[in-house]
Amino acid sequence: MRKRSFNLGWTFTTGSFWNRTTPKKVDLPHDYIVGMERSPENPGGGFVGFFPSEEAEYKKELMLPEGFSGRLLLNMDGAYEKTEVYVDHNLVFQHPYGYTGTVCDLSRFVHPGSQVLRVTMSSRHPASRWYTGGGLYREVALFESGMLSIEPWDVFLTTPVVSAEKATVRALVTVTDLKREVTRGTVDMTIFTKDGRRVSSAHTEVMLSAGKNEVLLECEVDSPALWSIDTPELYKVIVTASDEEETDEWEGSLGIRCIEMDAKNGLRLNGEKLKLYGGCLHHDNGFLGAAAIPDAEERKVRKMKEAGFNAIRTAHNPPSTALLDACDRLGMLVLVESFDCWRVGKTSMDYHQQFEKWWDYDTTCMVKRDRNHPSVFAWSIGNEIMEFDGASDGVYWGKVQADLVRQLDPTRPVTSGINMACGRPQDHFKGMSYNEMAYEMAHSTGIYNGEDRWGRATEGNIANLDIAGYNYMYERYKEDAIRYPDRVILGTETMPFYVTENYRAVMENDNVIGDFIWVAVDNLGEAGMGAITWGFEPPEGGMFHSGWPWMSCHQGDLDMTCFRRPISYYRSVVWGMDHKVHLYVRHPEFTGMNLYGSGWHWEDVDPNWSFGEEWIGKPVDIVAYADADEVEFVLDGRSIGRVIPTECQARITADYAPGVLKAIAYKNGEILAEDVIESAGNAVRIEAAVERETLPADGMSLSYIRAELKDENGHPVFGDDRMVKVTVEGEGTLQGLGSGRPCTEESFGTGAYTTYKSAVTAAVRSTVNAGEIRVRFESEGLMSCEVVLKAE
Prior knowledge:
- By secondary structure, the protein is mainly β.
- It is 12% helix and 38% strand.
- The chain is built from nine helices and 50 strands.
- The protein has an eight-stranded parallel beta barrel with strand order 23-24-25-26-27-30-31-32, surrounded by four helices.
- The longest helix has 16 residues, at 355-370.
- It starts with a strand and ends with a strand.
């Protein structure tokens, strides 16, 4: 079917998903949280991170040519939520869930000439446990054809036989024929390399009857270029269906690869053993809100891969097609998840209200849309489902979902992230301190008074799965290899504070194929889950979420701008991917103090050796992350101590004096790596680092620019955060401006934002016109900075 993207040019008529002035015309049908007012009286949902409930309406005129009598399908990759589609006064389609893509058929309601396509959404809260966004936040497109068509999700590509010498490619094609008579037709498949060279094809003749016609095609590819995380090779596939009067065409991508797994040999990709170094990922894009702009989705994947991740778990809903396309291109495996709840809810307005009526439709949409992506290695039917222990007919509902997934895609395994609370006595945490409760949650075994209550409670539903997803239960891995010798285990969530323990448990047990840390990139909502305190223990039930003005979870290896936090560098060292040393310092105000957090936290340290005069001569805690035999700390050329690292961390306390602090890591008696921090002077200017200098003039492309406060010698200046104003002129617009600050009253859409740990990040979007884009960063009392981008 012919695709026409409608990401540009909708008329936005009601609601306030963009800003408080509610523009009557918008360029992009995406949700942004920019500009919306937040205040202690209107805090945006606190823990959940949502903004006030809103309704939205989008309109677009459709002009169809005289004689039009074919098919017109509306494809919405994500619409949040309770969507209704109208053509003029006719209600065509309804859909309550906000995360699955949908295809609705407009054909019966459209006609030659002019008509109005209208889409409405109602975003009510609390509908989730995190920031959802609202409106048309992903791609929208129309597909058109004649009476003979291949619908967007009606080709299923598989590779049942894969070797270095030859691969078999199979296509299950559903051809829709709306003609009443039986006609003779043909279906063809052609496979091309990325440079356009034809490598294989298949052809069959069929008799097409009215309705749906399933056709199977098969061909072989010699010496295939295999898709893997290191070499994500993709082919282009074109499938055509023809009869005596017309032809329709489908185009998609193919990655030839073979994934196998079992409890004895673990996971193999194209025959090679592989552990998953995974990260859970919510759907938002930080200071762009929930808008799934393709460049933002790709950048997120690229930054994760640069940090060492090789897999993503889409928590806790299906992702955008743009994200999966990026994973296909960049070589990132994906566990696609459907729901955060089934029939028993977690918030008053979440999916449990619609589950029984809509679960099969939404599961079908998820699997059919995403099953051709080579990056997708497994499906998850839920996260920490309340009835997974069998209550409320939970085993039945687990079985029907898993069976449907396998019916739609028999080539991939099914899992679910299992709640560590299954079987837990209701009074288990009674009398525990905050720290004791946090530790218990991180080291849960499900065994109480010698009885394996978790194992007994979950056995029924785990029998429905191919992979048992363990949330925060790494201490069961070894024993469960004995208890359940055929069980494949995946750590579907693990706590960042216990990264070494989780990593060791994954690597030492072949029955465990990997783990997914919570969370890879800091997300909006679940506000303050990663907050910490120095020197005092919070009260029972303390920082599991924080109130106003906390905005993000503050748990990510990467912050909301996708800038790597210290935990990210530490994790890559522990994972054996980073042979450098990374030097950080705790602010002297907190020297010697105990650190408290939820387990989803990390210590607040910076690559900073610049403190006020009042701290000179006062002790300061210093840490270096390195996989080394020894780390030497040097201040202004003088050794201040040598430390043997424990769990890849070398720690020392030294008196503060401005100068040059250095960490030297030694391995086998030789210098492995060095890291240096120099004391900075006062901030004098802004320096900008541009990620992308040339953009397509397509109205959608983004360039991210990180602006940092620097002293006269070019050192970053911590502890003197300033308001930075950004202006964009020429053929670009400011898409958003923000920082990694998790707790703030600021808005992303004003064109001004305060630095956090010396920096802000701007996202600039091209227009549809070629030309220069001038981006200027200014802050009172500092030398400004201007960068020039090019749209072409």
